[in-house]
Specification:
Length: 735
């Protein structure tokens, strides 16, 4: 039964982007002509679509700002931010081509909760992240319905990785809100979804780890048309039955919420400010249960993100006659297995920012040129459509020589299809293309819209929203007729713009395992950063201590060794073709910290004023502190060799101690240092050094004047030492 349901709902997704080919979602090579390249032909300048009026609206209200801590204690700050794309620009009622699996008749009531197709209610806390919760809720619901598996994905990872804190982020903080197109960008670039356990939700932390294990590939996101009236609900209803929960938006005003009945109806005209998740409907829901009584019965069942203690266990009911509900974004997120493709070639990490086209034309051509990074196979193409029932034609060229095409060799693939709904789609190629490492290839798509004159979705810079968008020449090309091509970055106003076209590949050769580390030997605890250098790897299994147990499955793990010993490290990598392994015996060594040598070797005796050096060598890089009678005199860091020098202080006995530390280990060494009054004619081991005769002083003066060495010690007779001898002679004469 599970397999039948999964197949049925998978086929529904296929109908959203019908191909001409008899194979599901696979294109056909029939009934259209290949493009030729003739750059000499002129064509009108490309134009950009008008921006979403709500995006431009300076009066755009902060999301759910009427809710205060005294009301529910759930929210502060924005939660939904309108995108630059005018999602509402296309509102023609859709055909039933896409949503036909549910049958022709709709029930009067339907509830995904009773169908077991909704994951638990969550709480966004004090951060404006309702959009992330709604997007993830739709995705989780789809998986629950198609696979019978309840997943819990990380909203935290989504809300953080799309912020300005990251190179591929928008010009927003985690509290500035977002929209379904931002979620679409995060998911289709394969940043997520990741498990909640890998990045638990926090409404106070702005950063999340990169490169967490990906759980699914999002290859299809459907943007449903907005409602055109209170009873224009069929498309949303059929989407609920066929796919699961639907991302949508409302304008929240707490005064319109009926707490007694957990009902809501807004009658104003302000922009949407809150994202919610539709999970069902009831045509007979009593209109008298709303604070502002509408003209008819009926309500949608809505899942919120303010915790289970709010509303009806986290749910509430929105009247069909709400004036802002469903008039903006209505989006369905679907998922495929994470191993369907291995690599994602793309230039649009920020996704669908705007649309372009040619004046008074419903047709436009677009292309992205990529360079293969390995020996692989091109399996599929990803793209956005901007209208209902868009017809597309796909061409693939190898080694393009003039813009995106190769007129001499021609295309290697030509296929076509139709997408019933706006949104993001993936076309599986009927004819895969083998690519060699370093080989250039292009994906060329002709879009034919029925009514909307901006067929090409682009990523571009928009101040305050997507200013981190970047583009280089030779990446994206546009054309009116498929014969004359222009580099998009050379068009006025598009220097940092790319087309939203992706290419998906799989490897076609065995992986080769290899790895390195930032350190191989140290004291305990030893924390090692391993780097996976394998080629063609799709999964990683690390054994850090040779016990045969997998310790990590990420590409670049960190592991801490706490016990002394020699450790063998193994890495096993695999892809869809096979596997390979690399083992390095005794690769990591954890040894006790020790002092290898200490000089001088024993107790030290010197005369006052003599320069004395102490030094040690250790088996690990350490932090070294030198002490004289307990007072710190010198610190050196990350050294194996350290020395401390001191001109002998006044006569007396001293302790010189060195403390070396590495990790949690410490070692010390202490010297006893005896300093004597200086007298070159005394035995350095005696305790005399106090008396000096007149003859000795006269000889010292002679040595000093003639720059001679002292006979006994061969040391230099400096002026300072001569003055010391004179002092000793005077002290002796006085006695």
């Amino acid at each position: 039964m599970k397999k039948r349901n999964s197949l049925l709902l998978s086929l529904i997704v296929i109908f959203s982007c019908l191909s001409v080919s008899p194979n599901p979602v696979v294109g056909s090579a029939e009934n259209f002509e290949p493009p030729l390249n003739n750059s000499s032909l002129s064509e009108p300048e490309i134009e950009i679509a008008p921006l979403n009026p709500e995006f431009l609206d300076p009066e755009q209200p902060d999301s759910v700002e009427p809710i205060s801590s005294s009301d529910y204690g759930h929210i502060s700050g924005p939660g939904y931010t309108p995108p630059p794309v005018n999602i509402s620009a296309v509102s023609t009622p859709a055909t039933r081509l896409l949503l036909r699996a549910s049958g022709s008749e709709l029930p009067s009531t339907y509830d995904l909760r009773t169908e077991g197709r909704v994951t638990p209610v969550k709480n966004q806390g004090q951060t404006g992240s309702c959009w992330a919760f709604s997007s993830i809720a739709s995705l989780e619901s789809y998986i629950l319905g198609t696979e019978g598996e309840s997943r819990d994905f990380s909203e935290n990872n989504m809300k953080n990785l799309v912020t300005k804190n990251y190179p591929d982020g928008f010009d927003l903080t985690d509290d500035d809100g977002g929209n379904s197109l931002m979620a679409m960008a995060y998911l289709t670039r394969w940043s997520g979804p990741v498990n909640e356990t890998d990045d638990p939700y926090s409404d106070t932390l702005e950063y999340s780890p990169l490169g967490l294990p990906l759980q699914k590939h999002v290859q299809e996101v459907l943007v449903l048309p907005k409602r055109t009236g209170s009873l224009d609900n069929e498309v949303i209803k059929r989407a609920l039955m066929d796919y699961g929960a639907v991302f949508s938006t409302i304008c929240w005003n707490s005064v319109d919420f009926q707490d007694k009945n957990d009902t809501y109806r807004y009658t104003g005209s302000s922009s949407a400010n809150h994202a919610i998740t539709i999970v069902g409907w009831n045509d007979s829901f009593d209109r008298n249960r709303f604070k502002q009584v509408p003209s008819g019965d009926g309500a949608f069942i809505v899942k919120n993100s303010w915790g289970e203690s709010w509303g009806d266990g986290g749910y509430f009911y929105i009247s069909y006659y709400d004036t802002r509900f469903g008039y903006g974004e209505n989006t369905v997120f679907t998922a495929s297995e994470e191993d369907n493709f291995d690599y994602n070639y793309q230039y649009d990490p920020l996704g669908w920012i705007n649309e372009i086209g040619y004046p008074e034309n419903l047709i436009a051509w677009g292309s992205n040129v990529f360079s293969s990074e390995r020996n692989e196979k091109l399996e599929a193409v990803g793209f956005y459509t901007t209208d209902l029932n868009t017809v597309y034609e796909i061409y693939v060229y190898k080694n393009p020589t003039n813009g995106p095409v190769n007129s001499a060799e021609g295309f290697v693939v030509k296929e076509s299809g139709t997408c019933s709904y706006r949104g993001y789609h993936t076309h599986l190629l009927n004819s895969t293309v083998n690519l060699t490492s370093g080989e250039k290839f292009s994906v060329v798509i002709k879009f034919r819209n029925p009514s909307y004159t901006y067929p090409l979705a682009i990523e571009n810079q928009k101040l305050g929203y997507s200013s981190q968008a970047q583009a280089d020449s030779g990446e994206s090309y546009v054309s009116l007729d498929g014969t004359s091509w222009q580099d998009l970055t050379t068009e006025s106003g598009f220097s940092e713009a790319n087309l939203c076209i992706k290419a998906f590949t799989t490897v076609n050769e065995l992986p080769e395992a290899d790895f390195s580390s930032n350190i191989t030997s140290y004291a305990s605890p030893l924390t090692v950063q391993f780097t996976g250098l394998s080629t063609g790897a799709f999964s990683w299994e690390w054994d850090f201590n040779g016990d045969g147990i997998t310790d990590s499955t990420v590409q670049n793990p960190v592991y801490t060794y706490t016990s002394h010993g020699n450790y063998t490290v193994s890495l096993n990598v695999s892809n869809r073709i096979g596997s390979d392994s690399e083992t390095k015996s005794h690769y990591i060594t954890v040894t006790p910290l020790s002092i290898l040598s200490a000089n001088p070797g024993g107790s030290v005796g010197t005369y006052e004023g003599d320069l004395q050096e102490f030094n040690i060598s250790t088996n690990h890089n350490t932090t070294v502190n030198w002490y004289l009678n307990g007072t710190k005199k010198l610190t050196e860091s990350n050294v194996k060799h350290s020395s401390y020098s001191n001109s002998a202080p006044s006569p007396g006995t001293y302790n010189v101690t060195v403390l070396a530390a590495a990790g949690s280990e410490k070692v010390t060494h202490t010297w006893n240092w005896t300093v004597l009054d200086w007298n070159p004619w005394d035995n350095s081991t005696s305790q005399e050094g106090k008396n000096i005769s007149t003859e000795e002083l006269q000889e010292a003066i002679h040595i000093y004047k003639n720059s001679l060495p002292v006979p006994e010690t061969e040391v230099e007779m400096t002026g300072e030492r001569l003055m010391q001898l004179i002092r000793l002679w005077r002290e002796g004469s006085a006695n």
